[in-house]
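2024-03-11 09:14:02 INFO queue: dequeued item PARP-type domain-containing protein, len=1263
2024-03-11 09:14:02 INFO validating residues
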Amino acid sequence: MASSSSADPESGNGNHDSDLPIDRETELENQNAKLKRKLRTTAARAAKAVKRAYSSFTQPEESDYTRVLQKQYFTQAWHPHRASSTDHETDKKQQYFRERARCVFSFLAVLKSAVLGLFSGSRKLHHILHVCTCDDTSTRMRTPGLGRSAVYTVCNTVENTLFKYVGGSWESIFIPTPTRVLQSGRANAIHRAFTLWSLVTADGCGAMWSKLGFDGWRRGDGAWRTAIMMGDALKANDAAWSIERAIRMGKGNSLGLRMRCCNHQLCLVRKPTVLSVDRFWSTVVRLGHLLETSSFRRGLATAIVSLLQKEGHFTRVPVAEYPADMVLWRERTKWLERDFITGPNSTREALKEMVHFANGDSSGTKVVHYCLLESHHGRPCCESDEEALGKMLSHAIQFYPRGFQTPLLYRMKHYGQASSYVKFGCAFFALLPQALQVMSSSEASIEATSLADALLAESDFQGVETNILQALQDAVDMDANLALQNKVRRQLVVEEISQPRFLQNCLIIDALIHPIEHGINSLLKHTQLLHQLRYLGRGHPESDQVKEQTSKLFLDVIQGSLCDRLVKNYLQFLKDGLKETIQMGLDPRPELLTKVFQLVTICVTDVYRRFKYEFLSSPFTWFSLLSLDTEGFVQSFSTLQTQHCRCNKCTDPDFGRILLEHFSSDIRSSTPREQYAIQSEVCGLLQDIAEWCPLTSDSVELRNGQAQWVISRRGGQSIKAPRAAAEDTILHSAIKQHSWSLESESNQSLPPKTVSSGILKMVGEKQSRQLTSRETAAERAGRIEAARTRKIRKVSAWNAFQRSQTAGLSLSKEEYQLKIKEISQMWTSMSREEKDAYRVEAEWQQQQIDCLAQQPLQTAKERADGDQSCGQDIGRERTDQCPYFLCQKDPAFDTINRMVRNFSVILQSKDVKPGDLLLLSSQHQPEQEAYILGVVMKKPMLQTLVSATVTDLEAQYTLTQKGLPIIHTSHQVFLRFVRAGGLGAVEVSVEVWRCQPFLDNDHLKVNPTEQVGQFQVGAEKPACVQKVATAKLPASLQVRRKPKPKNTDSKRKGRAVAKAAFVMDPCSSSGEDAVSTGALASECSSGSASDMDLDPNKESETMVPPSAIVAAEEKHMGKVAREIQDSDQLREQTAEEIRLTEKMSSMPPSQKGSSFFSRSIGLDESPFDFMMNGREDDGSPVGLKLIPGYRMVVLRLESSRYGSPQSRDRVYIVMVDETTLGQVRAYVSGLLDNLGQQKIKHAPSKDIQRRLDSRHSSYRGRG
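2024-03-11 09:14:37 INFO prediction written
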């Protein structure tokens, strides 16, 4: 055998590699080295990664099928729009749908099992707290069976449940929920939507848990159940909660708490401030909407280039040292930079670089750069004027075209960024108004357009489309109707923003909203802490500390600490903030100072009403019991019992009344042990709520954005039906919890992302590092057995003593060694009796460790005992709660209500505005009381009054020892006058004085200079409210109109609602879709208020407009909203046409019904596919090819608009050189404007082509 295997040259069995020439071996080695270097390139690694990604989606083996489903649908590898990439493979799409449905069903079964596991076991439940944060939004969905999309109103919730056991232990679970389609705007539909997945409701649990066979309440009987609903202060949410309250009446241990979003409340405080300036809000919204289009951003960049290239608009001044005024200029620059609110860090970095380079006086209109001849590196800052201009253009293009997102007035999102952007653009050399004027007044030159495109490309701005999809999106932006709308909108913005008063208004409003932004940031911190508790639960290592922080922030808001901070910030603005704003450019005109004082008074009183006055009533006053000892608790609880016995309306029906009925016996007659037990139980419930109750609904706002991306991806490229949307959103909600927890822990335990990415890159490049020895089954079994049988040393008395001495210490290595020596000496000197205490503690610790090691994880047992029916008749009784300072049974209650109502009517008829001084007196109390009128509410009927001190020189707020103003409501003020009159007929005399503001050492003060009115307020109807008969024409002169048909539907009478918001699925009444929407299929047919459609955006409280400008702007808001809505609808219609065209072209021929001839020549393909990839019969290509260095531009001309006799629109596809892309866009835009203004009728197509050729003849030589 050995001889036969030897090398024989003739037999051919030997190895010939050694006989190769040396040059051949060298060549092979070079080829191998070259191949290795090629595999190390970025393209090769990317191709390898793509291959691995595609291999993960291949059909797995049957044994690994469940593992692959787990990875593809329950990890970050899941993508909701993966099925849209396989349009031609129907079988794969159907398989994806079946897999998704299977995963959703499996997830719901596991979720039910996990929840049942929290009910089972030896531990007894004491308190179950369910928090539901809900909100509605609009999203586009595909209508099943019709092949088109529509806008649906949907409801999203973020839900979490706390399980508190007897003894203090607790568990929490986050419940992923799907998006639910609202069947209507009725209160019943909204109530069913937000209770569908709730574990704790007035009926027991939500309808979906009943369908899943949930029977946990059979094991949780006797425990306290608390349901918290967090939502915006909207009438629809209040109506839905009233249904839940009616169901809860008569239930034993079921508590409820309705919380209003504090961020939404702060935005409502901001609303009258923003609307107090004529055309300010509409200008900001229109500008934000324009900045969403890429064409306007390119135009703005080109205008900035054209502006700064003009002679005199940018100046470079070479200096050896900076001028003396540079100190003042830098203060103004720091002020602009400090108050700027931005989202991404790149925007702030671009702003810092720009303000550092343009270091001249930013209050002027000419940009000046003082260039040092010798900088810190020994060279001049700029070598020439051209270099300085290039740097300034680069900084400006990196900042201004980024723009801002369109702000929302009733949400905290984007408004701070929008206000900061507009203020900075107008205050920093007035670059923004000047650039907008250049855009509207002149056409851009070729050089400016080319330079702007180059600068946009350098700033990572997506200015040039690289694929057909982006080209189609650009075609939507270049639509003729959209171009005309944007032109009109741009003219309105330029006309308003160019006025000098616009900058003055920007400075005032931006300064007044900063306290509100501070309050919003404080509330967002509370939301972040709740995220940690909600997603990590008891497993968080610092869960106890996080609960303490959430409880503290919650009590700060409930007990008025946040209100005090905001009010102090506004008072500080009157002293120092206004002085700084005046130094930075505010013109202190009398009318401007009057507006400032009026707005500060409105903000102060409205913050007090929303964040202190509302929390002085039950149930929020119950949280003051947490800070009392047993004696104080007994006294306060006894007071609450006395009030409840006297009038049950003095406590809220959802929370306080249920607690008082449960502990109905007099607490003062109980034993000290019973009193302590009651205190422990009540304070335990309150502490759980303080730790887990949210203060804002911004978590569900984020959920809305995520759900919209899952349902209809950006640009509407993949729109889902309601059933698919529900399945995808519940999977996304579960995955989001895992990804958030993973990211949160990674930030604390792993290196920074830059270091981690560097490590991963090294691992990817070094193939040898990825080769590790695999563990065999025998080795794994041996390792597990060794770990199981390993002897663990028990806890000794020395260990317990050492831990007690080092608890809470953070020591270095050297300090720890010294500490251990000191502890060992102490241990040696201790007696045996002293060591016995630590020996007992060590034994107890060892028992706990052994118990945890031997106790298995609890698993849920499937039990199907049926659904527990809790349905009862719903009571319709709804009573108003008494104010905290007056009971409804008080004899003066009706008198005061009539006086407040009359006072409100007189204020509106006499045109008394916030900021006016009111002097009140009566026959029983002749001494006048001075008040400054604050915010006036129409619903609820309420007026706020700030106590004032009047001297010969000024009128100022009366402050407490803490420096806070004394604020009352009109009910409280009139109550004192009625008490002084002995409950008889009382008339209060009111004098109205107009205040004149002035500056005293740059401090804003007011002086009452003119009495503008005087009237009497009593319980009788005032004479000024008597209606005057309107003048009518004689019957012979009146115009006869056709009578309107009578409205026979009594339910809808008096209700105006936009029913387009609730677009219904035509197939929703069928069985399949009815199941997909859960309990939202049925509608109540009763005639109560809950059956009427409610406006989802209508606020629950209405404010009287503080000025005529605010009233006009509120009406103008509707016009701007309709304007933007029409623009969005036009954009969506254009995009829908393109999407439908692409969809029909991508369908197989059998589905489209095309003929044999069209299929044979390729006309059944997409127009773009045919032009790009078309072929002849012999297979030779006839399609177009993109030339390197060129880009495709799609131009659509409406024939009827520009005079063409054809009924179809004309589409031009032009390949343009990259360097002239902006110039072509500018000239085409000007051509469309000229053609639209000339209004050519029935011009032949050759005439239009001749005009196009004549205007673009200069471009023929350049391609």
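2024-03-11 09:14:37 INFO annotate: The chain has 42 helices and 18 strands.
2024-03-11 09:14:38 INFO item closed
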